[in-house]
Amino acid sequence: PKLIMLLSGLLVLFTAAGLTKLSKDTSVRAFIPTDHESVVTDDRINETFGLSDTLAVAVVTNDGESIFTPSGLTLITELSEILATLDNVRSDRIASLASESSISGADGMVEVDPYAYPGSISVADAASARERWSNMPPHIGTLAAEDGSGAVILAELEDPQQAVDTDLAALELLRPFATDNLSIHVAGPAAVSAFLSKKIDGDARVMQPLVFLMVLGFIYAAFRRVKALLAPLVVLLGAAGGAMGLMGWAGISYFAITNALPVILVAIAVADAIHILSYYYQLRAAQPDGDVRDQVITAMSEMARPITLTTLTTMAGFIGIGIASIMPPITYFAWFASLGVALAWLFSMVTLPNALVLLQLPPSPAFASWSSGQPNALGSFFRNISTWCA
User: Fold this and answer.
1) Which pLDDT tens digit goes with each residue over 255-276?
2) CA dist list (Å): 351 to 85, 295, 321, 376, 382
3) CB 113 within 8 A of CB 131
């Protein structure tokens, strides 16, 4: 048992070490196969025209007034200059009313006039900018809203993988410019990635520890032994941490849907441990002075078949999803969920019984009435589960 526990601990540490190699990919493109026609076309366009993911900053008047005012155009100019200072923003690829111009013809000549001239902007300049903008169909509904109540600043990013940091930096720099009559919003693929990344971190910090505590609390309530938590804990860490760690070792990114993987694996892995512990405690209640090793062997002999069958059917379900899905995040989720279920079976069948032998767990008060053949409500519940599985 000691050797098995040592090897199990090393296996958990090795697989979980891959967690340090996990990198998040919250981009929308992550859900599209790399060889999909839309992705191939998008890559060809980006390569041809030098395009990349775009960060969009919308400046909207809350009272519906026009953005084509001296203060409005001045603000657009200032915000454009601020965005150009960000490290991951291509300063030469910023499009806004401050960078674009109107094009018109007069007396056989082409006139190109910027919407916002450098320096102070007068009321007449703002009115002229709106009139010229209204005669530029490509700029209506793009650089500014059709009713002129808002404008957008488009900034291309150098490295889409740093979109989260760039979005947070932009929000921090632009937030002070918002007023009661003027709101500032950030959108675009980069903003979506940043939003998802922030939500993933928040959910993971709350959901994953919570599910661990709830599961451990349920095990304690069921068996009323603190030492009874140790063996299932190894199974939970081995299944959830192992599957997630192997994702890191394999170079698979942490997608939005991956956030649910450890929660699902914990819920699945604890079921095997509960079945085994329930049967073990039944035997301990019936024969308190019996040999622990023999009782563990008997419990495993009874539980091995139902646990193996349920493991195989669960793995088959995840494998079916992995084969059928064309979305990489869902495919990886299914395959590594299947792997996690297999790890849960391995630790339940090998590590858990050896842990029980080492711990020499005494009879549990929750199963005290088993010796008389009249189990209490909780004991009856576990007996029905064990009987059904067998």
Assistant:
1) 878 888 888 898 888 888 888 9
2) 56, 16, 29, 29, 22
3) no
Residue whose token pair is 């661990």: 212
* Termini Cα distance of the chain: 26
Copy the structure tokens of residue 180: 């009661």
What whole-number percentage of the chain has pLDDT above 90? 19
Query: Exposure of 44 by Cβ count < 10 A (0-12 exposed, 13-18 middle, 19+ buried)?
Result: exposed
CA 29/CA 52 separation, integer angstroms: 12
Task: Answer whether residue 89 shows pLDDT above 80.
Answer: yes
- Say whether 377 sits in a helix, a strand or coil: helix
- How much is the average pLDDT of 128-155? 90
The pTM of this model reads 0.69
Report d(CA 160, CA 299) in Å as an integer.
Answer: 54
Yes or no: say if 270 and 216 are a contact pair by the CB < 8 Å rule: no
Question: Mind listing the pLDDT tens digit for each residue in 37-76?
Answer: 887 887 787 777 766 778 888 999 888 788 899 988 998 9
Q: Where are the beta strands (DSSP E) in the chain?
A: 54-61, 89-95, 101-106, 109-114, 150-157, 182-187
> What whole-number distance in Å separates Cα of residue 260 and Cα of residue 211?
11
Contacts of 206 (CB under 8 A, 6+ apart): none
What backbone torsions phi and psi does residue 99 show, to the nearest 5 degrees?
Answer: -110, -20
Report the alpha-carbon distance of residue 248 to residue 132 in Å, rounded.
Answer: 54
